[in-house]
Amino acid sequence: MTAPADLRASTPRGGAVARGAKTAFDVKSVRGDFPILHQAVFGRPLVYLDNAATAQKPRAVIDALTGYYARDNANIHRGLHQLSERATAAYEETRSKVRRFLNAALDREIVFVRGTTEAINLVAQSYGRTHLGPGDEVLITTMEHHSNIVPWQILCGEKGARLRVAPIGDDGELLLDEFEALLGPRTRLLSVVHVSNALGTINPVKRLVEMAHRRNIPVLLDGAQAAPHLKVDVRDLDCDFYALSGHKLFGPTGIGVLYGRERLLEAMPPWQGGGDMIASVSFEKTTYNRLPYRFEAGTPHIAGVIGLGAALDYLESIDRDGCIAHEDDVLAYATRTIAALPRVRLVGTARRKTGILSFVVDGVHPHDIGTILDRQGIAIRAGHHCTQPLMDRFGVPATARASFALYNTREEVDALAAGVRRVLEVFRA
Predict the structure, then answer these.
(1) Does residue 331 share a domain with residue 297?
(2) pLDDT tens-digit profile of 298-344?
(3) Catalytic residue among 156, 239, 323, 386, which?
(4) Are residues 360 and 265 in the same domain?
(5) 159 and 143, same structural domain?
(6) Within a 13 Å sphere around the CA of 156, how many CA atoms are in the beta-carbon half?
(7) CATH classification of the domain holding 291
(8) pLDDT tens-digit map of 166-224
(9) Are residues 133 and 155 in the same domain?
(10) Virtual CA dihedral for 150, 155, 158, 161, nearest 10 degrees?
(11) Is 355:331 a contact under the CB 8 Å cutoff?
(12) At what angle do helices 302-317 and 59-67 cross, to 10 degrees?
């Protein structure tokens, strides 16, 4: 089978400029920072290729979590004692780190949530409930994760609105002419994935935002898969909302971020009530807190926020341009290597991709592929990847998905290829 052309072409993957010179990227050194990678599974060295589901954590993040619980464990914003003040300072410092990471204008545009899923639900339940009515439309694409489908289905069902879906081509790229034709006078929001979690396609989101904004349509970008691999600049992209998950960004699980344009967040009502999101409460009336706290009801995942801050510090300490080049090389090598194997078909061959290689093997269910690879110490994902409509588009029930991160190597790709050859031996045609 012929491998597709280099997936990235010559187009840069990001927009932000690094803030300082870094030492050259060294994958061996990076791997030494991740304790979990240095183990055997079924007697084989672990080859972890399930990073799109969750990425592993560097020692700096693990130390930050244990350090918080060992020294500073206290609730934030309310306490007058030293532990609470230290925890609050670390929590709010991370907000500033996220603002810089995304190049947002203001700290108050950064809202902490449980993850990308909660961020999208927040926008649906707060912004969407306010702005959608009967006959209005929300536009998404065929390649969306379920978390960028179901919240809009629920909202449209309640409001009598309509969910429109932009099609993609056989290569997994968005069909731009058809997409633009769906942006109509009743479109109230565009919600689109920045990088597909099942295909690795990098959508031309800046161009999509421009198309939408010409019609005064606000845009939410699902950045769960983009943030670990691309330089994200929300002001350059000019998006109105951007969502990401900490655990895919080498941080803890259960923490994520919603970036929102200040003027939009100011006009949005809170979607959860409780402590810390209020300025004052009486039985007659509640006055809501200022941004971003009106959207952070209750005790937050304090340790998770602090761990996310440590993850961002870690990414800031390495050469991001070198890291991106390394990831590009690993994915391009994997594409050539796996596509050359007999009976293998790649699913998703867009010109611009990052981090993900999905494939099927003729005559073998992806779950069997995953099981056999696991016995070789190779961790991949097999299934529909929470993109069942996308699987239907390609006429498959599932795919095997190898997803790469900054610590993966060509040698691990060779191990994956050897594992797939073992699959072919077990399931002879």
Answers:
(1) no
(2) 999 999 999 999 999 999 999 999 999 999 999 999 999 999 999 99
(3) 386
(4) no
(5) yes
(6) 20
(7) 3.40.640.10
(8) 999 999 999 999 999 999 999 999 999 999 999 999 999 999 999 999 999 999 999 99
(9) yes
(10) -110
(11) yes
(12) 150
Domain membership flag for residue 37: no
Residues spanned by the domain of 290:
62-315
Cα separation of 389 and 275, whole Å? 39
Total domain count for the chain?
A: 2
- Catalytic annotation present for 386: yes
Number of neighbours of residue 93 by Cβ within 10 angstroms: 13
- CATH code of the domain covering residue 382: 3.90.1150.10
Q: Quick one: tokens of 363?
A: 């005559």
Render pLDDT for 342-393 as a digit per residue (tens, 0 to 9): 999 999 999 999 999 999 999 999 999 999 999 999 999 999 999 999 999 9
Does one domain contain both 309 and 420? Answer: no
Arithmetic mean of pLDDT over the chain:
94
Tell me, yes or no, whether 271 and 227 share the same domain. yes
